[in-house]
Design goal:
There is one protein chain. The chain is α+β, with helices and mostly antiparallel strands. Helix content is 31%, strand content 24%. The chain contains nine helices and 13 strands. It has a five-stranded antiparallel beta sheet with strand order 12-11-8-2-13. A five-stranded antiparallel beta sheet has the order 5-4-3-7-6, sandwiched between helices. A hairpin with a 4-residue loop joins β6 and β7. It is elongated, with a radius of gyration of 18 Å. It starts with a strand and ends in a 5-residue tail after the last helix.
């Protein structure tokens, strides 16, 4: 089976353009919808740890899920808090499925490694808020329950005969960590409220485990989301130069 190695959205769609023999319909058949956990706590500074009653970052990391994709990145993300907010590598942590200080402390006190601590750039977070994909509940908690588009790797394998390898793009990757983004849910962030029509959202691609999300059919997305995907294809589903 042919292997397609991609690092961003442009290389993904150009590669699938070749693999599908330019059939957009075949690629669209590989699409799905997914919904992240409905709530998450956001930490973007050391002061946030204190405000949430966490004695040290180590206390949080001690109960982090070691199998979660971002586990090894914890201290690199923490170090990024020292960067200016305008730096594209300034990150924030997001604790998936935890929406309050009380729920966080219940998880910590359990002693179990249950916290799924992910991360994204501060700029990306602000973009999600601006386009109303995510919204603040209070100073630290966000509602993140928006349906979003994605690809299913097994469908790509079955319908296009291609094995996708999505390479991790993070400049802050922990030493010795995996260079490939793993999981059968291939996520490509787009901005469904993009007003310009010239470029659609974040250009990065990454993978997640489908069992951590509610996965459904592409048709379940809002008209705005489906239109944004169509615009993305019009711009990016092309032959590589």
């Amino acid at each position: 089976m042919a292997v397609l190695e991609v690092r961003d959205r442009k290389s993904l769609w150009q590669g699938l353009h070749r693999a599908s023999v330019e059939s957009l319909e075949m690629v669209q058949a590989c699409l799905c919808s997914y919904s992240p956990p409905s709530k998450r706590l956001i930490l973007s500074s050391l002061e946030d740890f204190a405000a949430l009653g966490i004695s040290s970052p180590q206390q949080l990391h001690d109960v982090a899920d070691e199998s979660f994709w971002a586990y090894r990145d914890f201290y690199a993300v923490l170090s990024s808090f020292q960067l200016p907010e305008t730096d594209p590598e300034r990150r924030v942590m997001g604790i998936e499925g935890i929406g309050s200080k009380a729920a966080l402390h219940a998880a910590i006190q359990s002693g179990e490694r249950v916290l799924r601590i992910g991360h994204l750039s501060l700029g990306n977070l602000r973009g999600k808020v601006a386009n109303q994909e995510w919204r603040w509940i209070d100073k630290h908690a966000m509602d993140t329950s928006t349906l979003k588009p994605a690809l299913l790797r097994p469908r790509v394998r079955e319908l296009l005969g291609v094995e996708l390898r999505v390479m991790r793009h993070d400049a802050h990757l922990a030493d010795g960590g995996p260079t490939e983004s793993l999981g059968d849910l291939v996520i490509f962030d787009i901005d469904h409220a993009n007003p310009t029509g010239t470029e659609v959202g974040n250009s990065k691609v990454f993978c997640q485990c489908p069992s951590n999300y509610d996965v459904g059919e592409f048709a379940a997305l809002s008209a705005d989301q489906r239109n944004a995907v169509q615009l993305m294809f019009e711009i990016e589903f092309t032959r590589a130069p």
